[in-house]
Design brief:
This protein is 23% helix and 24% strand. By secondary structure, it is of the alpha+beta class. The strands form 5 sheets. Strands 6, 10, 11, 12, 15, 16 and 19 form a 7-stranded antiparallel β-sheet that branches.
């Protein structure tokens, strides 16, 4: 018989996370674990805070990035400064009466209420609910180490400060809704956010990042290009699947019909697709970083001085470097890749780069370079008319020789247009030697 006296088993409770880190995506966790990037951001926060003296203390800091990383780094720097100047702990030498007397003294209360000189008296970060909860966890951990640090207020993204009240407008930038898109889309959205908050900036406000630019380079990726070719007259198991070509997106398939801008004032170009090229077999052909040149810069945008409108940028010529000409003849050229750079805060100091790139490069076994693993996706524009290499199994197209010596390199002319209505940068590329579309 069944033993009814035995207690019934308790129902299994669902798993409850002990932290909000589970809400973060793998791309976000990869960016937060990038120690080089975090060190660079800490240096920028320190430079911005050094620009304000103790007499002119920034009263209000607003962080536009989701999660408030820049505001947290500011409070972290404040905690480091407080711990550095804190007197050694000697509480065991004082009685409880004297410790209470010192904690209630006028000087101690004045310092506690005023905060640390040179640091913002108020910091506000915008973001969704999950990011606000995670930020509050980090503030709790920080204040447990240093109670003198002023906390960070986390507000919804619809919150707006009063006019001319913001002294520091900072951003990472980061938005989880577009983190799987091209890396430059984060900066375009930052540009729109800064323009939306211009009325809230004080006359002497500081904005970071204030400038960004987009780089472009030629890429050899035969395997990726072959996987995106058309299915015309393709037969799979006796079934013609070529009709699927009508469903192809012009963003991912170079042979699909692209949309032209109405009016014909500016070239419409084609849309790129986001791709983590470090996961693909590829080779990047770009100029060495020690060469002072502006080649390969599609656009340079100042987020404060340039209002939001349809932007058409001048032609940018992407030239195949001479030292990788033999590698390009062997592997071919199949795409263009774009990545971003952000200008550092404060005056440029000798011996350090003024720009911070979202991409890193490693040496490729085939020659040239390749994108290193990272947290940001590149924008890729596959060629409609690629230049085949010897390893592609097709006869490579000979480059026409010109009269000038050494001027037989492959050159692609790229024009770019940013349309705020579309929210993306579109490219129109052309081979210079024969005038064919890229």
């Amino acid at each position: 018989s069944e033993d009814v006296s035995a207690p019934a088993p308790l129902p299994m409770l669902p798993h409850k996370p002990t932290s909000n880190l589970g809400f973060l995506s793998p791309w976000r966790l990869r960016a937060l674990n990038d120690l080089g990037r975090l060190r660079w951001l800490r240096r920028q926060v320190k430079r911005l805070l050094e620009a304000f003296s103790a007499a002119r203390r920034p009263a209000f800091l607003l962080d536009l990035s989701e999660g408030g990383l820049m505001a947290l780094l500011c409070r972290e720097e404040e905690a480091r400064r407080c711990l550095a100047v804190r007197p050694p702990r000697c509480k065991h030498l004082l009685s409880r009466k004297w410790r209470r007397f010192l904690s209630n003294s006028r000087a101690h209360r004045r310092r506690r209420d005023a905060g640390t000189p040179g640091f913002p008296a108020r910091a506000v970060a915008l973001g969704p609910r999950s990011a606000r909860e995670l930020g509050r966890e980090q503030v709790y951990v920080l204040r447990s180490r240093c109670p003198e640090v002023v906390g960070v207020e986390f507000k919804p993204q619809s919150w707006r400060p009063t006019p001319e009240s913001v002294d520091l407008l900072l951003s990472e930038p980061h938005d989880s809704s577009i983190e799987q898109r091209e890396c430059d889309l984060q900066l375009w959205q930052h540009w729109v956010q800064v323009q939306d908050h211009l009325s809230t900036l004080s006359p002497s406000a500081v904005v970071f990042p204030k400038r960004f630019r987009i780089h472009v380079a030629l890429v050899s990726c035969a395997a990726l290009w072959q996987r995106r070719r058309a299915l015309v007259a393709a037969d799979v198991g006796g079934v013609n699947v070529g009709v699927m070509d009508t469903l192809a997106s012009p963003r991912h398939f170079p042979w699909a019909a692209d949309e032209q801008e109405e009016g014909g004032m500016l070239p419409g170009g084609r849309a790129r697709f986001p791709c983590e090229l470090w996961q693909q077999e590829h080779v990047v052909f770009r100029r060495s970083t020690n060469v002072v040149s502006i080649d390969g810069v599609l656009c340079d945008v100042d987020v404060v001085d340039v209002p939001v409108h349809l932007l058409g940028f001048g032609a940018c010529r992407v030239t195949l470097p001479a030292d990788v000409r033999d590698v390009a003849d062997r592997l071919g050229v199949h795409a263009l890749a774009t990545w971003t750079e952000v200008e550092a805060a404060g005056p440029h100091r000798g011996g350090s780069s003024r720009w911070r790139s979202t991409a890193a490069f490693d040496a490729s076994a085939d020659g040239g370079e390749r994108f290193a693993p990272g947290a940001f996706k590149q924008g890729v524009l596959l060629a409609r008319n690629p230049r085949w290499g010897v390893d592609d199994g097709q006869a490579p197209r000979k480059r026409p020789r010109t009269s000038s010596a050494g001027a037989e390199d492959l050159v692609v002319e790229v024009r770019s247009v940013f349309d705020p209505a579309r929210g993306e940068l579109r490219l129109a590329a052309t081979w210079v030697d024969d005038g064919r579309p890229f």
